[in-house]
């Protein structure tokens, strides 16, 4: 089974094809030029796909059909290009898809960074605590044992509190790190729904997931409408892109209203699909016949909002983990330094 191209590769492909379509270059020639630009990279997924697509398009197949048969392009991109071919708006659709997948790449990188930094901090905390337990605390213990004869029987026995504190913190950090690793694997596997249920119980994480779902929906809806698709069908097809159950439930209610004769903008406003100010923007855009532009603006605003919330999450987690590290190490060092201070006072 062929591996799907990542968002950046799909974005670059669509943008390149869009620019060549704008320049009046035929589809088969455009694919051939893209293949030449890859040089000897024929072992990569995109390189092999371009070779296969060139042969199929030269044989008379459409671009969308050739893309689908390679198996490396996302179904959404293929379906949108097929709609663009049918409506005669292929060039516009290619550029919209390029922006869509570029935005998806930006959001994915933001989320990856939000997970990577706390994970790195956890590894650092675990390493510091391990060093404290393996080297620093035993060194102090040996010194005090040599000075007092028996640490447990001496007035310095509370050094053991330092060991207990470090062990408790280490175990907690290991459990958190293991939970993150398991959650990451489940998210990329078959357990994504279970992870989402947990994340939805955390207010900020729930807001991020909902905004991401709305971002994917508005971006897809804008592209579908640009392809000439009917509004009701565009909403139904775009709902599949949300990957967010609460957003899908709201959209189901909107679809039911549309089946009763209401427009999408009116249904979205009534069901509070967007924030009130965004809902009024959509209503105004529909009445003025400028709905596609309003949806593009909403998509941009949702992307920015999602990025801000991810930055806010990192801003909360960063000082929290740093505080845990400093507090644990500081209290541990204070516990082993107090006896030394007591000795110095006795000598003085």
What's the layout of helices and strands?
Layout: H1 7-22, H2 27-37, H3 45-58, H4 63-70, H5 75-87, H6 90-148, H7 160-187, H8 192-199, H9 203-226, H10 231-239, H11 245-259, H12 264-270, H13 276-287, H14 291-347
Helix pairs in contact: 1-2, 1-6, 2-3, 3-4, 4-5, 5-6, 6-7, 6-9, 6-14, 7-14, 9-10, 9-14, 10-11, 11-12, 12-13, 13-14
Average per-residue pLDDT, rounded, comes to: 80
Radius of gyration: 29 Å
Low-confidence stretches: none
Q: What is the CATH architecture term of the largest domain?
A: Up-down Bundle
Strand proportion, as a percent range, falls in under 5%
Per the principal axes of the C-alpha atoms, what is the gross shape?
Answer: elongated
Secondary-structure element string:
HHHHHHHHHHHHHH
Number of discrete domains? 2
* Biggest sheet architecture: none
The number of E-state strands comes to: 0
Helix content: over 70%
Structural class: mainly alpha
Write structural notes for this entry.
The structure is a single chain. With 348 residues, this protein is mainly alpha-helical. The protein folds into 2 domains: 7-73, no CATH class; 103-348, Type II secretion system (T2SS), domain F (Receptor-associated Protein, Up-down Bundle). Helices cover 81% and strands 0% of the residues. The protein is built from 14 helices and no strands. It has helices spanning 7-22, 27-37, 45-58, 63-70, 75-87, 90-148, 160-187, 192-199, 203-226, 231-239, 245-259, 264-270, 276-287, 291-347. Helix 6 runs antiparallel to helix 9 (203-226), helix 6 (90-148) runs parallel beside helix 14 and helix 11 (245-259) packs across helix 12. The chain starts with 6 loop residues before the first helix and ends with a helix. 32% of the residues are buried. The mean pLDDT is 80.
């Amino acid at each position: 089974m062929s591996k799907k191209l990542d968002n950046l590769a799909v974005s670059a492909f669509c943008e390149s094809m869009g620019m060549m379509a704008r320049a009046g270059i035929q589809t088969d020639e455009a694919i051939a030029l893209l293949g030449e630009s890859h040089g000897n990279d024929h072992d990569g997924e995109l390189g092999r796909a371009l070779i296969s697509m060139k042969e199929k398009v030269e044989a008379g197949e459409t671009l969308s059909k050739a893309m689908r048969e390679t198996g490396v392009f996302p179904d959404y991109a293929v379906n949108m290009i097929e709609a663009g071919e049918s409506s005669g708006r292929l060039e516009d659709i290619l550029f919209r898809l390029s922006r869509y997948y570029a935005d998806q790449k930006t959001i994915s990188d933001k989320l990856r960074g939000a997970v990577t930094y706390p994970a790195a901090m956890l590894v650092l905390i675990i390493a510091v605590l391990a060093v404290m337990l393996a080297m620093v605390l035993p060194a102090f213990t040996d010194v005090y044992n040599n000075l007092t004869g028996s640490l447990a029987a001496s007035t310095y026995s509370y050094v053991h509190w330092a060991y207990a504190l470090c062990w408790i913190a280490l175990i907690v950090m290991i459990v958190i790190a293991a939970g993150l690793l398991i959650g990451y694997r489940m998210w990329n596997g078959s357990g994504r729904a279970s992870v989402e249920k947990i994340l939805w119980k955390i207010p900020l994480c729930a807001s991020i997931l909902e905004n991401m779902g709305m971002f994917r929906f508005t971006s897809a809806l804008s592209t579908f409408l640009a392809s000439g698709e009917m509004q009701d069908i565009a909403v139904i097809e775009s709902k599949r892109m949300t990957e967010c159950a609460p957003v899908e439930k709201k959209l189901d209610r909107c679809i039911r209203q549309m089946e009763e004769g209401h427009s999408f903008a009116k249904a979205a406003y009534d069901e509070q699909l967007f924030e009130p100010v965004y809902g009024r923007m959509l209503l105004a855009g529909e009445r003025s016949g400028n709905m596609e532009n309003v949806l593009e603006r909403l998509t941009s605003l949702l992307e920015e909002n999602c990025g801000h919330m991810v930055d806010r999450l990192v801003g909360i987690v960063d000082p929290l983990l740093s505080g845990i590290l400093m507090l644990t190490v500081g209290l541990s060092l204070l516990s082993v330094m107090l006896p030394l201070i007591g000795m110095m006072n006795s000598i003085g």
